[in-house]
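User: For a benchmark we're assembling, each entry needs the component sequences followed by a predicted structure for the full assembly. Here are entry 17's components. Please fill in the structure.
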Amino acid sequence: MKFLKAFGQFWYDFIIGDDWKIAVAVVIALALLFAASTAGVFGDTGLTLLGGALVMVAFTISLAIDVRPKRR
Amino acid sequence: MDAATWGLIIATFVACFVEMVEATTIVMAMGFTRNWRSALIGTFAALGALAVLTLAAGYALANWLPESALQLAIGGLLLIFGLQWLRKAILRSSGRKAVHDEDAIYREEVEAAKAAGAAKKGVDMFAFMVSFKGVFLEGMEVVFIVLTFGLNANNIPAASFGAIAAVVIVLGIAIALRRPLSMINENLLKYGVGLLLASFGTYWAVEGIGIFRDGRESLNWPGHDLMILVLLAAWLLLSRIFIAALRRPAAAAPAAAGVPVEVKK
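Assistant: Structure for entry 17:
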């Protein structure tokens, strides 16, 4: 059990790191891109450009949450 | 050798260089305060384990996953790594996060080594384990970067060459200087690697969404590989905007107490 916990902790630290919001931002951006691709509205060019924009917007939001003034 | 191969070698070289500087600090602390033989055995054992891991994972990923699945999985993870490095670089450059300091880490490791008691004859397990763990954990990220870049460019040897060259050069500098490599601007290097990982990660992860289409074909970026340069420019511009917007007055003129430093490995 202790080994499993340590094993899980290692992979969590390795992939998620010290800011889980980044991982969540990437997953949400790719999920939205997946939704757009299944809608069939865009071709490859539109989808890739949308994907790039979504990742940048998601990163911006995660960073904005990170640096927001903390309530006292 | 073409430009793409040079780009591959440079990317893995810089990423590995940064990680090796951190690992070398730990090994040097163990070597100088406890036992060089044990620290070096731990180092080479970790490098051996990392080489085996690279070969095994490289073979499995290259043979068992379709290309678009590979791009999505490793592109997504690369993107997460890259954005984490970029986030730290933005926060450090804007004065909102302490700067990484190899001297402070070295002092902390030396204190821990002294607190662990006298080194035993033969193999000192404390020096061995700390060196092994330090090199292995720092190296894991390099293994991942080598695999990601190498598989996507169909050139694992070139990616491995970049990483091995970094190991040799960092070890050479460390042996020549015999002190922590704090003169290297690690924060700037990490910023550069973060930009590279974010750009390549965005490119591959977005391409990999094609796994969900009929035929499982990757999405095609306009301009193909040239788009990586556009993404690099976009991430650089975005990060500079963030640094300018988030900069605190204290960062521009450090207080008398000096710039805060981070001792986290």
